[in-house]
Amino acid sequence: MDRMPASIFNDVIGPVMRGPSSSHVAGAARIAAVVRQSVGGAPMRAVVDFDVNGSLAASHDGHGTDMGFVCGMLGKEITEPDVDRYARLAEEAGVEIEFRILDYGAEHPNNYRIEVWGRGGEHHLWEGVSVGGGMIEMRRYDGFDISLCGDFYEVLVKFPHGGAAAMKSSRAVADSAPDFAQALEGGGGSLLSLKYSKAPEPEALRVAAAEHGALDFVLIAPMLPTLSRANCAVPFSTAGEMLAYNEGRGLAMWELAAEYEAARGGTAKEDVLEKMRGLVSIMEGALKEGLAGTEYADRILGPQAYLIEAACKEGALIPCDILNNVIKSVTAIMETKSAMGVVVAAPTAGSCGCLPGTLLGAGLALGKSREEITRAMLAAGLVGIFIAEGATFAAEVGGCQVECGAGSGMAAAGLVQLMGGSAERCADAASMALQNITGLACDPVANRVEVPCLGKNVMGGSNAVASANMALAGYDKVIPLDETIAAMYDVGLKLPLELRCTFGGLGKSPTALRLLEKMKNR
């Protein structure tokens, strides 16, 4: 099965969540939700292994991996207000979860190796990856190579050798009309993997599986907002293809985004707009909460967003009304995130201030309507599609350039849309913004997603404003957006592990180490 096209609402704008990091919290929660379903509910025990050479070994506690995984195992949504009580909640539910750091040669820095025991005697081995921005891929199940991303209803049935192929050819499987069906052979038997875009009738499949000698039957429900399907086709997947598609049509960037996502999700363009309106409303709530002031004990920085407005009133700041409003708005949303408030990971939780704060801050200062801001967010989301297809949103893979940097490129395109610029100018602005941030390291201080993350989000907003104005004025971007994305990804892959969400850079400075010790002793 070929990889499904990226979706604005799966890969780019979202998930809605609490916590410091989408790849850690949301990714872990989704991985755990899959594992939980395989044992029919909250397990009796689970052991989770992180590779010593990956990013999770150093950051799983401070970045919220443990919290996300436990909540996923308990069936808790990561928007619930008590998710930070995860350890106590697991104890109360009688669920034992052990995290271990081992050297097992994982190929991805965000790799999870999981052994789980259910309350009814179920026992499974899983291996999965948090690929960035809350997206996941489960890659191994009880010794079989699979690909499960949460965008289908999945049926996994184990058989003795030959049983999976026989079941695949059965009338029961044909009648259930799977989008994809695959029979796999392994050392311990065979596995039938069925993928459905609509919920199947499991009982008929269970009966047929039993008749074919099934050893185990597991149904996994999807968890992504936009489901996938067979023959899923989109009008374009790169900026170059988008511009060619739009030649002679003159559609605005937001209209192209709506066409793309409607095709991807098999829905109407108005449905796409309505879904984005809902996400913008949540972003507005995060901004409002941050501006009101937040308190949370387990963080480095206290509330600071109010300082910008206070200093403006005193005439103490360099006069840049739009930019200062962006700085204030980005800061407010980041503070909501650090206080465990609800945010939209756009494109990630670590960069959740840059894009929403820039478009809301600039949009409100310019007197733009919510609908105009919603359209700008769609335009930004389309740039995110090109990044998702050509690179990654995981700082553990590509450094902060693919989180705050990506958010900056997306915000630049959104600002051009907000000002009525063409789709070509939106792409140019995104390219210039991304060109300005290649090589940006991810080096969080004290295992928290606050310092220098706040400053990098603010920088991303400032860079977006400058890049948007350059594009609107007609500056030559020289390097097309697709080539810039490819170059950014290439640079990210060449960054040392220490500069990809571990303890390098600022994270190993003497002050950072003192702060880390202080946070541990709180």
From TrEMBL:
It comes from the Bacteria. It holds the Pfam family SDH_alpha. Keywords: 4Fe-4S, Gluconeogenesis, Iron, Iron-sulfur, Lyase, Metal-binding. Residues 250-502 form the Serine dehydratase-like alpha subunit domain. Signal peptide: none annotated. Pathway: Carbohydrate biosynthesis; gluconeogenesis. GO terms for molecular function: 4 iron, 4 sulfur cluster binding; L-serine ammonia-lyase activity; metal ion binding. Residues 18-93 form the Serine dehydratase beta chain domain. Its EC number is 4.3.1.17. It catalyses: L-serine = pyruvate + NH4(+). It is an enzyme of class 4 (lyase). One of its GO terms (biological process) is gluconeogenesis. InterPro entries: ASB_dom_sf, Fe-S_L-Ser, Ser_deHydtase-like_asu, Ser_deHydtase_bsu. Belongs to the iron-sulfur dependent L-serine dehydratase family. PANTHER family: L-SERINE DEHYDRATASE, L-SERINE DEHYDRATASE 1. This is L-serine ammonia-lyase.
